[in-house]
Amino acid sequence: MKILSVGSEIYPLVKTGGLADVMGALPAALAAESITMRALVPGYPAVMAALGAGAVALDITDLFGGPARIVAGEPDGLPLFALDAPHLFARPGNPYLASNGVDWPDNAQRFAALSRVASLVARGAISGFVPDIVHAHDWQAGLVAAYLHYDGLPAPPSVMTVHNLAYQGQFPAYLLGALGLPVAAYAMDGVEYYGSIGFLKAGLQFADAITTVSPHYAVEIATPEGGMGLDGLIRARSSVVHGILNGLDTANWNPATDRALVARYDASTIEARPANKVALQARMGLKPHPESLLFGVVSRLAAQKGIDLIIEALPLLESLDAQIVVLGTGDPAIERALAEAIARYPGRVGVMFGFEEALAHQIMAGADAVMVPSRFEPCGLTQLSAQRYGAIPLVSAVGGLVDTVIDANAAALGAGVATGLQFAPVTAAGLRDGIRRCAALFADRAVWQQIQRNAMALDVSWAAPARRYASLYRQLAQSRPGK
C-alpha cells in the first residue's frame, strides 16, 4: 500500500512544531506495517539543499505565477517529494512569516499550490507512484480534498489530520478563482467559512476521514468551547473522526544513547541521572543545589502554553526552594517577563530564548519535573520525552496530556501506575496546587523514583499509532468503489 503524505514541514529538514515530527516519523513507523509513505513538502531552501541534485519526477509549466517541478529523493532515508517552486518557497527563515514577523502576503497561493500539486500526484501524475491514500496535514494541506472533490475525476480516499485547530488558514473570498476553485465551491457545504475561504474547513468538509493527534482532543474539538467555530462541522462528521495519539522518535529521544547528556542512563541505572541535573544547573546559571526541586520548560512562549501561569507561580517556587529552567521563544511580552524574572530570582530562574535541540535533551535529563500547563494541547510531545527521560510531567488536564500522563492520585499511587501529575482548572491557582503536589511527592524519594520508573517504562513509540493509521488506511482503501 502506498500513501502520499502532504504537509508544510518535516523533521529534520524544517520544523516549527509537532507537525514536523509527525511528518518525519510516520514513514519509518509505517514501514513496519508494510506501508510505503512518501511525503510531499514545499521546496524551502533547507529542503532543496538536503535533496541535492535529486531526480525530477514532474515538471509543471505554470503554478500560480511561475514554473515548478517535483524533485524526488531520500535524504537521510526519508522518502520525499519536494515541490520546487522558487517563486513561492525560495525564501529564508520561517516557512510562514517574513522577517518582520508578519505572514507572507501570498500564503494562500503558496499552500494552495502545495494542495493543487498533491491532488495531481494523488491521481497518478508521477510515474511509478500511484497512492492508495492521500493524507493531508493541517490547514496548509487543507485544499487537497477540495481539489480532488471539485475536479470530479477518479481519486484515492483522503485523510485530514488536525494538529492544532487554532490555525485554520482563512483567506479573502475574492481569491476563489485565483486559487483554481469553481464558483460553486463558495458555499456552506464547500470552502466558504464565515465570509472567507477556509483551508482547514475545506479539508474537514471533504476528507473521507478526519484524525486528530489524541483521542481526548477529538472530543474537545466537537464542543463549542474547544471547536473554535468548527465544532458544528466536526459533530456533523463525527462518524469519520478518529483520535490517534502521536508517538515519539524513541531513537532520537533515548537517555541510554543520548550524546547531549553528560551521563547516559536507563530505568535500571537511574542513579546516574543526577549528574545531568548538576550540569544543567551550571549551564543555566542556577545555584548548584542537587536537593532543590528543578522544573524544566521546553515550549513555545505563548498564552496557549500557559507560560503566563508559570510566571505567576514563581513566588511559590521561591518559597519551596525550587528552581526552573525555560527554553523557548514566542510572545515578546512573555519573553520580557521571563527576562525580568532572571534578575528578580537570581540563581533560581534560568532562561534561554530560542531553541537548541541539545539543550532540550539536557533539560529532559536534568530536570526533576517538566511543566506543561497548556490551556489546550492537541497532543504534545514534551510530556512524552519527559517521561522517556524520567522527568515527571506536571500537566494541565486537557487534550493529549490527559491521554498520556497517569495522574499520581491515591489510586494510581496505590496501584503503582502513576507516571506524572495532572492539574485542573487551568488557572494560576490550579498550577500552584499542582506544584505543591509535585513538591510533596519529590520529598518522598522512594515514591518519586517509582513514578520515574513507571514513566520510563511507557511505550511512547510510534508502533501503536502506526498500527492505528495502517488500519484506517486499509479500511478506506477497501471502501473505494471497485474494491
Automatic annotation (TrEMBL):
Recorded GO MF terms: alpha-1,4-glucan glucosyltransferase (ADP-glucose donor) activity; alpha-1,4-glucan glucosyltransferase (UDP-glucose donor) activity
Cellular-component GO terms for this entry: cytosol
Pathway: Glycan biosynthesis; glycogen biosynthesis
Enzyme Commission numbers on file: 2.4.1.21
Signal peptide: none
Keyword annotations of the record: Glycogen biosynthesis, Glycosyltransferase, Transferase
Family to which this protein belongs: Belongs to the glycosyltransferase 1 family. Bacterial/plant glycogen synthase subfamily.
HAMAP family noted in UniProt: Glycogen_synth (MF_00484)
Protein name: Glycogen synthase
